[in-house]
Design a protein that fits this description.
Elements: E1 2-7, H1 20-26, H2 30-40, E2 44-48, H3 50-53, H4 56-66, E3 70-74, H5 81-89, E4 96-101, H6 105-112, H7 117-135, E5 138-141, H8 144-152, E6 158-159, E7 182-186, H9 196-202, E8 210-215, E9 230-234, H10 238-246, E10 250-253, H11 261-267, E11 273-276, E12 291-293, H12 299-307, H13 309-322, H14 328-343
Parallel strand pairs: 1-2, 1-3, 3-4, 4-5, 5-6, 7-8, 7-10, 8-9, 10-11, 11-12
Length: 346
């Protein structure tokens, strides 16, 4: 079986001839990890980024040369291009087009771009999103929220969650030491639409010995919140990040989503998790396996956790019972089975 990833990514490793091992080295998660593990299961995998996917004529040539059984589209800009190629340009037409739907494209554009570009881009991506979802041969999503949205358009999207590989204790070495009596850790992107300022603002209401540590790229809009108990660590090596995570008493994810990759990464540590009270209700059961902050007010929830070790243990234990977390190899096996079943349909 042959799989072609058609992405809107501008990353240099999304290029013809780049192997799956290099993809995994740059991004050991999401479609890069899935493609790598599918190759280990016997698939022949190729990757194309914006340079080859934005132009339908170039894309059609690549499709005819590679002759995929499945094309997996990723991103809201080029998702319709393989469908156009199959209908009008390709000699090789015996492939299924599967869209990987991870985000609401128009909504994200409206949140990350500036006026008036955000309005125009949002409307365009709303238009593209609906047509990609409705016209692809199949859609895979890791979001129950998006699955519900697809049903409103008459499309049943196949659900496969995010993955996270088990934690290797030998990889948790590092120099950073968390010094709070109760330490909360946030990992990953802190862009405005992620609502990270909610938890930073909440720390201003808490004692100094309850500390929040944030890893990853720092943003100017968050700088005013830096303090003794709101500590920005910046980019860390993988080993150092795992070291920080190993010392957490709790984790927090602030985006109004039910499919953020850090959810599974956090769950691997068997620690209590805080999240925004919104779409996360489709992933967690509030009060049983996580605590969800209404209107982003995390302060009272953090105080509860800091004063109640039994609650912390119950939340973590219930999450382990309720929410399975799969390795990327196991996620790839789910894709393997689904793609083969789909490709065999006439």
């Amino acid at each position: 079986m042959r799989l072609l990833y058609v992405s809107s990514s501008h990353s240099p490793w999304y290029a013809k001839g780049t192997g799956s091992e290099e993809h995994l080295r740059h991004a050991p998660y999401s479609i890069d990890a899935i493609g790598y593990n599918l190759e280990k299961r016997g698939w022949t995998v190729a990757w194309l980024g914006w340079k080859n996917t934005a132009n339908p004529f170039l894309l059609a040539r690549e499709i005819d040369e590679f002759k995929p059984d499945v094309i997996y589209t990723y991103g809201g800009i080029v998702g319709l291009n393989p469908l156009f190629c199959r209908r009008f340009l390709c000699h090789h037409k015996a492939f299924k087009v599967v869209h990987g739907w991870d985000d609401e494209y128009g909504l994200v554009a409206r949140k990350i771009l500036h006026w008036p570009t955000n309005i125009a881009a949002g409307l365009f991506l709303d238009f593209m999103e609906k047509r990609i979802v409705r016209n692809s041969d199949a859609v895979v999503t890791l979001s129950r929220h998006l699955q519900q949205k697809g049903r409103k358009w008459g499309i049943e999207c196949h659900y496969i969650p995010n993955g996270a590989d088990p934690v290797d204790p030998s990889s948790t070495r590092g120099n950073i030491r968390l010094t709070g009596l109760f330490n909360i850790v946030y990992c990953g992107d802190k862009a405005k639409w992620k609502r990270t300022d909610d938890v930073c603002r909440s720390m201003q209401k808490l004692p100094k010995d309850i500390k929040l540590y944030l890893t990853g790229r720092d943003y100017d809009y968050l700088k005013p919140y830096a303090s003794e108990n709101c500590v920005f660590l910046g980019y860390l090596s993988k080993e150092e990040q795992l070291n920080v995570m190993s010392q957490a008493d709790a984790f927090v994810v602030t985006a109004d989503q039910d499919c953020n990759a850090k959810l599974q990464e956090y769950l691997r540590w068997d620690k209590p998790i805080l999240a925004y009270d919104g779409q996360a209700n489709l992933f967690f059961h509030n009060g049983r396996n996580a605590l969800l902050a209404k209107d982003g007010d995390y302060a009272p929830l953090i105080e509860r956790l800091a004063s109640d070790p039994a609650l912390c243990r119950d939340l973590a234990d219930n999450a382990a019972k309720d929410i399975p977390v799969y390795s990327w190899a196991e996620i790839a096996e789910m894709f393997d089975e689904y793609f083969i079943r789909l490709a065999r349909k006439h």
